[in-house]
Fold this sequence. Notes:
With 149 residues, the protein is of the alpha+beta class. It is built from three helices and seven strands, in the order H-E-H-E-E-E-E-E-E-H.
Amino acid sequence: MMSKRQKRFALIGAALVVLACVVGLVLNAFQSNLVFFFTPTQVFKGEAPKSSAFRIGGMVKQGSLVQRDMTHEFVVTDNEQDVAVSFTGLLPDLFKEGRGVVAQGKLDASGHFVASEVLAKHDENYMPPEAKAAMDEAAMRKAAKTVRP
């Protein structure tokens, strides 16, 4: 027969096991739903994951939008590198060439980005902070290249 002290330790041990299982399940769910943001330059350099979903952001390149039925193909640029994107579905009303966009999806075997979701910026003054920083950095690198003799 177990003493009160042994029962208390058994109960505390069982509670710790249950707590550890709950924490493990929450962390697993969080990890599987975590989606990282990458710029076209980072995708070009191979920094983006090859097998999992991520977000790509930048500007929709002027003259790049091609529509075939419900499939839309366009190019996302950070003014340094371009990434071809295809999306099947309805584009947001605010989606336009020359405006900011964030697309979520995966790279296919050929390096083409297949989007499952496309988000357009809210107004002409808004751009996701990561996309804005990437665009500014690309513009600075481009300016530095043209200044050098």
